Recover the amino acids of this structure.
């Protein structure tokens, strides 16, 4: 977020869209001159604060999960961005017909606000290697949505694990910023590493669901013991990873990532060559209904037994 100014651009676009919707609703009401005057001129004393409706007071709770941000992530170019924005449904008319951004006439303005934010965000380390993202949710959206839309697919997935994280998942006390680490993080605790590896095993299974080889990089801290590092590596391979290596690249730079690079190469070489390596096994097809898609993602990725929809949700999906 923000490297291309996208957080401010999406904020401005969202505010403009909200204002346009509010204006459209206001002007289509049957209002008397008195009501109109009271709307424009506060009947309160000049020192009083402005009066806002509950809808005006509500704010966007999670900008990165908004539809505009999703469109920004999927659009291929400016014309595609404009097309997708124009089709956004923002409400329903009195006749219960969908109202789109095109209908309220702000498609061009929203596209203009996002024209720079559509540029790719390229991140890399000081040694030129690309940065990644969290596997817990990011990998599912990346493979199911982004790869499907772009036609691209990964040849290998690298999961980064640390002994500290495995211990936390294994039941160790929470790490609090600014406070000293609890003792279990700085002493050897193979039991916590083993328990926490259950979460790592689930992440490996999630990645393998897309039929892409998985390599685990165990990034060590100075207080990790050799036994803890080896246990994490062994358990990762037992969970289905193509390979798992100790990768001290944080401390040693590129030299510390050589073994990891070799492991990635080997995993890709062992991958069956179907003649088209861009073929990716997604969790659902485009023609599946929303209920089946939700069940496929929730049960495969997040360990749910099923997804239950309320009657109101089912009515909206019909």
């Amino acid at each position: 977020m923000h490297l291309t100014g996208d957080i401010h651009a999406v904020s401005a676009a969202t505010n403009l869209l909200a204002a346009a919707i509010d204006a459209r609703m206001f002007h289509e009401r049957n209002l008397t001159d008195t009501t109109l005057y009271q709307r424009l001129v506060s009947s309160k004393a000049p020192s009083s604060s402005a009066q806002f409706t509950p809808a005006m007071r509500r704010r966007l709770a999670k900008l990165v999960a908004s539809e505009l941000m999703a469109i920004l992530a999927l659009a291929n170019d400016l014309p595609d961005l404009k097309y997708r924005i124009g089709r956004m449904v923002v409400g329903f008319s009195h006749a219960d017909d969908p109202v789109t951004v095109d209908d309220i006439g702000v498609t061009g303005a929203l596209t203009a606000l996002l024209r720079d934010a559509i540029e790719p965000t390229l991140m890399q380390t000081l040694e030129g290697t690309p940065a990644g993202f969290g596997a817990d949710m990011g990998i599912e959206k990346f493979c199911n949505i982004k790869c499907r839309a772009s036609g691209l697919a990964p040849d290998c997935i690298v999961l980064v694990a640390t002994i500290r994280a495995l211990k936390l998942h294994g039941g160790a006390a929470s790490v609090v910023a600014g406070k000293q680490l609890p003792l279990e993080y700085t002493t050897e605790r193979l039991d916590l590493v083993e328990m926490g590896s259950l979460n790592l095993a689930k992440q490996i299974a999630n990645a393998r669901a897309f039929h892409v080889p998985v390599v685990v990089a165990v990034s060590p801290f100075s207080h990790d013991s050799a036994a803890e590092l080896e246990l994490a590596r062994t358990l990762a391979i037992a969970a289905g990873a193509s390979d798992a290596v100790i990768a001290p690249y944080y401390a040693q730079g590129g030299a510390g990532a050589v073994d990891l690079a070799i492991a990635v190469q080997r995993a890709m070489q062992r991958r069956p060559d179907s003649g088209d390596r861009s073929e990716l096994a997604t969790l659902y097809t485009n023609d599946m209904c929303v209920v089946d898609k939700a069940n496929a993602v929730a049960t495969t990725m997040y360990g749910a037994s099923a997804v239950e929809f309320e009657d109101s949700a089912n009515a909206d999906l019909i």
In short: The chain has a mean pLDDT of 85. The chain has 16 helices and five strands. The chain has two domains: 6-113, 138-270.
